Amino acid sequence: MPPSALEAVAESQGRTQDNGRKRVIVVGLGMVGVAFIEKLLDRDAVAREYSILVLGEENHVAYNRVGLTEFFAHRNVKDLYLNPESWYTDMDSTRFAYRIGIKVSGIDREHKSVVCADGKSFAYDILVLATGSDAVLPPDVATQGGKGVFVYRTISDFEQMIDWAERLDEGGIITKKRAIVVGGGLLGLEAAKAVKDMERFDDVTIVHRSKWLLSQQLDEVGGSFLVEKVRETGVTVRLSTEIKKIQWDDDKRLTSVTYQDGTTEDCQMLCYAIGIRSRDAIGAAAGLTCHKRGGIIINDQMKSSDDSIYAVGECANWREQTFGLIGPGVEMTDVLTWNMTQAKLHAPRSFTEPDLGTRLKLMGVDVASFGDFFADRNGPKKLPGRHGKKAKSAPTKDDVRALTYQDPFGGIYKKLIFSADGKYLLGGILFGNVSEYTKFNALVKAGRPLDKSPSEFLVGARGDDDAQVCSCHNVSKGALVVKIRDGTCKSIGELKSCTKAGTACGGCESTVKGIFNAEMKAMGAEVSNALCIHFSMSRADLFNVIMVRKFTTFEDVMKNVSTNPMASGCEICKPTIGSILASVYNRHVMDTQVHGLQDTNDRYLGNIQRNGTFSVIPRISAGEVTPEKLIVLGEVAKEYNLYCKITGGQRIDMFGAQKQDLPAIWKKLNDGGFESGHAYGKSLRTVKSCVGTTWCRYGIGDSVGMAVRLEERYKSIRSPHKIKGAVSGYVRDCAEFHNKDFGLVAVQAGFNVFVGGNGGMKPAHAQLLQENVLPDRVIALLDRYLMFYIRTADRLQRTARWLEALPGGIEYLRDVIVHDKLGICAELEKQMQELVGSFFDEWNVAIKDAKKKSAFRQFVNTDKRIGTIETVSERGQPRPADWPAELHMKTFVARHGQMKCGSPHPRYDENGSAYISCPLHKRNYILSNGEKAGSCKDDDAQSITTFEAKEEDGQVWLKLPPGVFAPYNATAEALGSDPTSGSNPNRIVKGAFIEGYPNTTVLEGVKAASYMVEMVKKYPGQVSIYATGAMTNVALAVILDDEFARRAKELVIMGGYVDDNMYQATGTTNEADINSDINLMIDPEAAKIALTAPFPKITIAGNVANQGIASQDFQAEIYQVKNSYSKLIHDYYPTIFPFWDETAMALLIDPTLATNTSIVYMDVDTAYSSPSYGNVHVYQKALMPPNVRTVHYVNTIDAKRFKNMIKNAVQYPKTCADLKKL
């Protein structure tokens, strides 16, 4: 095929392409090679960091080598292609190109290029070797060079075999033709099947030196079953046999073979399938480290001994292993492509011991092996769970037990290997029926204890799959099991939706759930009600234990109930136990024994907001409030500059309260008749109401009065999750009772009571619990309902999800709460009465308790305050200032005793690893040393930066990473480092240094940035800052001194070129044209800092300099007055260049020189992966993004006056004496 543009570029010896992408050369277009290409193209689709060229030695694109046995049926190679040819030809040629039928003969590591047999070479930045393996021939056979001997590896091999077999009929001399396949492994059986399908031989024989076929995947019993099945197909099988001699005729054509026992058989075709050897020759010739038994040695990241060369698949040797299966090769490509594209944003991956299990159909027979399938013969490679942890020596065969099942009539054999105690499945072999392969393999990979005895996996437990589970929809147990096992349904909800079981009366729901949990466990999926790693029981069980045994402290619970009594708990069990203790005893959440158990909001009795301040929401029961109370709210909000908003629950929320102000705010609210609204807790929030009969002409009941009574009763009770209620005085539902945890609607006979509604992320319509409830019976009914929910729900489970999971659903709840089926209604009512009877206002207690109040001080050792909250005004109210799009860090030293930490103390998980929780984002971050330091335990997309710290001489020192701003520009720009964005030298071109990239000094030993800061401090409002090219030192000066930009007179830039968005901003096509082709690639991050700094004025002179060209005529005009300056310009200044710096300096000296200036908003694209990285984008005000500022962009100048300024300056230069006169 003709070379593409990408190939033409790759054929050159440059290191990077014109599009800036790294060049990846892949040698080998087999199944592993194409897997690598597909994954890299997919994972690089956004960043587009790489361009790929693949070189394939065969004359075909990648095909399914495992499916070679099907080739004879259609004789069409294209039917085996993994991707159609159009997949290759339609690809974006700047990202991918391919060449087939080209052999790579060598690697030039010094010049980073591959050399092909046709003499062409291709340059690479990254080289990936996927050259696969060669089939092995015995040395004596390979040297004889006779006709009729083949290997079975490629399409070419198969085509040669077919051609030879067809030509055997020529002459008609041979009456009985025999083909022998040497090797009874996977490849040998595939070859035997292919030869048999040719239908050219009267006898096909498999010769195998082991006692049974497939000896690397099956044990002797399974192999014997396979031998029998293969013989049934008409294939002869010779076991424990080897060929000792091959006979040829005078034309070197194969005639017969002699076996080791002396027997000779006629044979017209011999096919060897006895193994493979890695194709590592080009790697070895290039000096890459290779294993003595074959294969390019790689590390866990697929890297060879050359940092730019990787190997994947059968040509690679990982930990002294080469893998002849496709699966491990694909796993290698997955690791490599992930690290090439995603590791910069995430932790890198490493290759681990691959899954060598196989599931194949050989000679018409289904065969599978999984896990450690020879553990009973060789001893287990490892033991899971506590077995592995306690082992003092390597495990042996005595540590495992095997169960087997043989059905000689059905041709079925199963062997499952378990740990000696039968708690873990380690591996197994399946023959004839492999339908359970997926389930068994998942159990092995999960490595979890089994939930049933080993025998049940072979013979099954007693039970009838035909038994009816759901009589409403006539659904059997077997129908449910099928949907679970085949992966159709992965949750109880999906199972109910798919089969309809449990969706009618709900009576079978508990049975459905039990079947689902049992099957999921059997497949290796964990289904557990355990609260966390410290408790084996559910939250509901733990609640009952605490209540019955009357535990009153966290320590009591851990000591008596926890699986690890010495543990300190975790972020799951601590808040849960704190909530349970509050639900049972209603203790103040800031009491010493329970304060440390609370979530962030409960710790400070307020909701923390995105800037670290808190919201204050006093209770306004049923939304009813007097004018006097409204005035109190207004006065408090005004005094503390709080943002006010009416909530959906008919309350007023005041945002922006600083922690140290909370007690004073609560005191004023208490004095005005308010108490805590508990908006911060998992408790009752509000009971919303319409005005009902109080005002509404349609009202049937007193909705406001009922809502007030309910909110006053249930305020402050702690529950598994927040609770919301509503009361509507009429069926029009103005209070929206249908989406509340409990909702009432007034009817003629009283109230209809609904429960289990939710309006959050997963809305749920409330269900009718009881209708026509008398007004004086409502509270008793809700007492039972709420207390039953508090006692039985899981942690953080809303009533909607609780009701869905409740066995029997609403009918069961109705039986318990209305009909008292369990006989606990009186107990529930009594418990609720005790709980609500112990009410106290948490705000009021915190104000009066000095110890609790002290927790709200800004600093623990002083009453002094420091203002740290930045706000902006929006629609007449304060709100938090937006976080900057990019954060820049200053170098600092935190002095011991003066540093305030806003984060909680570190926690420790079950492994003793430290982590810390962010109170703003509800995330946990790893603090332990290592590559995962700073990564998020809850969300892979998030992370924090961690620093090594030490205390020395009373000071706390942090070790900052390379590239972070230092107090002086000490990052050695000349060596290729970019001081504003890190230490990657590829972020900036070397030419930038030649162009005057700033590492200059104005005085010996004084850095430019420091000098600018010093001068601006000395002469505030008088110093103009001028920048040309990169603005690194301007950015450094801005970072060094927060007031630098404000103190300067202005910033004038030569080189701030913009894109064609100028047309959008100015509406002038000419201006867009002249400013459409240049950018700020030299140091975009510095440009971003400079262009967003608070300089009083920023002026940019870009292509306007083209109006002042140093033409020959103009130079001659200058040279009419001869002096050293005019001679210099006349002799050396190029006539094709404009007066760039001179233009900008002239505008600095005389701003009136500009005749046309656009005032626009500018931003710099600093996203390194963006195709517009470094571009300066221009916006009009209506379309500008946040955090940008106005810039004066000069479009035209008075060119005549400008040239006169240059001519006068050169012909009659000012002396120092002249300047002194000025």
TrEMBL record:
The keyword Oxidoreductase appears for this protein: yes
Signal peptide: none
Keywords: 2Fe-2S, FAD, Flavoprotein, Heme, Iron, Iron-sulfur, Metal-binding, Nitrate assimilation, Oxidoreductase
One GO BP annotation of this record: nitrate assimilation
Pfam families associated with the record: Fer2_BFD, IU_nuc_hydro, NIR_SIR, NIR_SIR_ferr, Pyr_redox_2
Domain Rieske: 902-958
UniProt-recorded Gene Ontology molecular function terms: 2 iron, 2 sulfur cluster binding; flavin adenine dinucleotide binding; heme binding; hydrolase activity, hydrolyzing N-glycosyl compounds; metal ion binding; NADP binding; nitrite reductase activity
Pathway, per record: Nitrogen metabolism; nitrate reduction (assimilation)
Required co-factors: [4Fe-4S] cluster; FAD; [2Fe-2S] cluster; siroheme
Keyword Metal-binding found: yes
Family: Belongs to the IUNH family.
PANTHER family referenced in this protein's UniProt entry, alphabetically: NITRITE REDUCTASE (NADH) LARGE SUBUNIT
Identification of the protein by name: Rieske domain-containing protein
Organism: Bifiguratus adelaidae
